[in-house]
Design goal:
The complex is a heterodimer of chains A (339) and B (306). In chain A, 68% of the residues lie in helices and 2% in strands. Chain A has 339 residues and is mostly helical. Chain A is globular, with a radius of gyration of 20 Å. Chain B has helices spanning 2-32, 39-57, 60-81, 91-113, 140-162, 164-174, 176-181, 186-208, 220-233, 238-266, 269-294; strands spanning 129-133, 136-139. The relative contact order of chain B is 0.18. The chains are: A mainly alpha (339), B mainly alpha (306). Chains A and B meet through helix 5, helix 10 and helix 12 of A and helix 4, helix 9 and helix 11 of B.
């Protein structure tokens, strides 16, 4: 908020904020998506073909980061628990696949069933945890979501039928209708299509009346209540929608790695999603994709030079927070965030 | 009955360990308004330094001293290099920067001490058991942890309530600018308070280390548990931290002891152990849920409008 110029009464006044043209964010969103879409061929052309699988992970985690940015950047609700929604999606889709390979009941390899089901599970847990976490705001909200994340981490670790803390391998990926997803390039484009849809959905949401209430509650919840908006309901809905899309990302992630493991719900994964938003630029939606790209590609490149890349990621992150707060998207957009 | 008493002592020991971490965390938050995710890393640094010095000298006392000083020093570095710039930032910035510190610390201890887990052994003079009650033997070392927790807490309380520095700390909680205007060097005061909280976390790390594996990331779960403590107790309240730490320590211990048995009577014993232990892990979070529903500001938290 600090960069929004104070109005006459000292209260942040958005009319003082330097505006950008309306088409610029959309142009950047389209450019980034096009770049991601042709990336598999680009990396091939420059002889970095081994990055292909990382690109799929960029798309998947970018999708989760876009969903998280919706409540963090636009809702002002800093969730440090979104890894649990990733994991809920992974376990919903993964368990159905494990059952299929074991010939047990309650099994399906059909993505058209498993992935929407994952989103439903994510949304329901999002509602449940959201009701509780939204009893609080600010720093409490961060701590409560982190605590729930840890609880789910423990629970996933004790799921012995699915490998407990070791996890379990999935012999095959989901099938999308008649389409096999075993080929990495096919799978990439399925994930990419879902990413594009997700970006479109959230861009519509933030421009809808629903989105304006959520954004209004971020800036001044009391004022929104005063004009008659029942903000907690809107925030709860926003949280559940965000959770649901994070679970979709989880369903894709377990298909990508073909390994169902509780590690995806580790709290540092929640932190990394937040990092992606900040690196890419908070409150821009597409920033999540940029951040996921920057982080995962850096990781992939750094791992050749040092085993201690996390150490340097940490230092870089501190510098970003202290110096370049607006992220890559902020630089591209040349404007103040969140407007 | 003996089992219940023994588990109560275990629960108290867990509670006091947790208290030493959460007291510092809540003190720092109350005064500086910074949510420090890296507080658990200070616990870890304390344990690692103690493991190193303990292995070199074979003396627990030296290891303890080194662990506390090491954690305090790490705390000073943290405050001066990073945390200091976060006081006026929003919580998201604080979370990200201190999350970065967690990454640095977790990797840093591996760079310094390698990836092999280490151990800290108990001091010889605290070996053995004491007959607490007829028929109940209890390890002296665990009793010593409880004792150390009580002493640390008393010292902290005396410091905050009865000394001039404590007066500054309380004043800094209320109004930083005014305190500075009165001629107190607030910058140094903050660093000192941060170092105290860090030293206390390091102390907890050293005394708990004999029961744990000293490894990268060992502080993370303690950090999250102390967040649960703070949510239950109310932010910035030392009294709340005391009550909530003991509740959490006891709840977790009782749940781990009795839940598997209770569930075993309801279902078949083979699956009971697994279900019981996952429920036991979840139990403290359920305590938090109840507090959130009944009193979202925490047991001793001030009522706020937001």
């Amino acid at each position: 908020m600090s960069r929004i110029a104070p109005g006459r009464d000292g209260i942040p006044d958005e009319t003082h904020v330097e505006r950008t043209t309306w088409w610029r964010p959309l142009l950047i969103t389209v450019l980034v998506l096009v770049l991601v879409g042709i990336a598999p061929f680009l990396v091939d052309a420059v002889g970095l073909g081994y990055l292909q699988r990382s690109l799929t992970r960029v798309v998947i985690l970018g999708l989760a980061a876009v969903a998280l940015d919706f409540i963090v950047g636009y809702g002002g609700l800093v969730s440090l628990g979104h890894a649990m929604f990733l994991a809920l999606g992974s376990y919903t889709t993964g368990v159905l696949l494990v059952h299929l390979s074991r010939g047990e009941g309650l099994a399906t390899g059909q993505a058209l069933i498993a992935w929407p089901l994952s989103m439903l599970v994510g949304a329901l847990f999002g509602l449940g945890f959201g009701v509780l976490a939204l009893r609080t705001r600010g720093v409490y909200f961060i701590m409560v979501t982190l605590a729930f994340n840890q609880m789910m981490f423990f629970l996933f670790n004790t799921l012995e039928p699915y490998g407990g803390d070791d996890g379990v391998r999935l012999p095959e990926r989901s099938r999308l209708g008649p389409l096999s997803l075993e080929a990495d390039l096919t799978f990439f484009y399925v994930c990419f299509t879902l990413l594009v849809l997700t970006v479109i959905v959230f861009n519509i949401l933030i421009r809808s009346p629903f989105g304006w209430v959520v954004r209004g509650a971020r800036d001044n919840e009391l004022r929104m209540k005063a004009i008659g908006a029942r903000t907690p309901r809107y925030q709860l809905a926003a949280f559940a929608i965000s959770a649901s899309f994070a679970s979709l990302a989880g369903a894709l992630a377990v298909n990508e790695s073909q390994f169902l493991s509780p590690d995806i719900s580790h709290w540092t994964q929640s932190g990394e999603l937040l990092v992606m938003i900040i690196v890419g630029g908070m409150g821009s939606l597409i920033g999540g994709v940029i951040g996921a790209g920057v982080l995962l590609v850096l990781e992939e490149l750094a791992i050749d030079f040092t085993n201690n890349w996390q150490f340097f990621v940490g230092i870089g992150l501190i510098l970003i927070v202290l110096v370049a707060r607006r992220g890559v998207a902020g630089l591209l957009l040349g404007r103040h965030r969140n407007v | 009955m003996e089992l219940f008493l023994e588990q109560t002592l275990n629960g108290l020991q867990a509670g006091f360990t947790l208290l030493m971490i959460s007291a510092g965390l809540t003190l720092i938050f109350g005064m500086m308004g910074v949510l420090n995710l890296a507080h658990g890393s200070l616990f870890m640094v304390g344990a690692f330094v103690a493991a190193d010095v303990g292995a070199r000298t074979g003396r627990f006392e030296l290891a303890l001293l080194a662990g506390v000083l090491g954690a305090a020093l790490a705390g000073v570095l943290m405050e001066v290099l990073v945390i200091r710039f976060l006081y006026r930032r929003d919580h998201l910035d604080q979370v990200l920067a201190t999350f970065a510190l967690v990454l640095i610390a977790n990797q840093g201890v591996q760079m310094v001490w390698g990836i092999r887990p280490r151990t800290v052994s108990r001091p010889g003079w605290l070996e053995g058991s004491l007959t607490v009650l007829p028929g109940l033997q209890y390890p002296i070392y665990r009793l010593a942890i409880i004792g150390a927790g009580i002493v640390a807490l008393l010292v902290l309380w005396l410091l905050i309530e009865k000394t001039r520095v404590g007066m500054w700390i309380r004043a800094g909680n209320t109004n930083r600018e005014l305190l500075g205007a009165l001629g107190v060097n607030v910058t140094v005061l903050y660093t000192v308070v941060f170092a105290m909280g860090a030293g206390l976390a390091g102390f907890a790390g050293v005394v708990a280390a004999p029961y744990l594996t000293v490894e990268s990331g060992m502080g993370d779960n303690f950090l999250i548990l102390s967040f649960v403590v703070i949510v239950i107790g109310g932010i910035g309240s030392i009294k709340g931290a005391v009550v909530a730490s003991l509740i959490v320590g006891l709840a977790e211990t009782y749940a781990h002891t009795y839940l598997p048995g209770l569930i075993g009577e309801l279902t078949d014993p083979s699956s009971a152990a697994a279900i019981g232990s996952s429920l036991a892990s979840a139990s403290i979070f359920l305590v938090m849920v109840v507090v959130l529903l009944v009193r979202p500001q925490g047991l001793y938290g001030a009522t706020t409008t937001t």
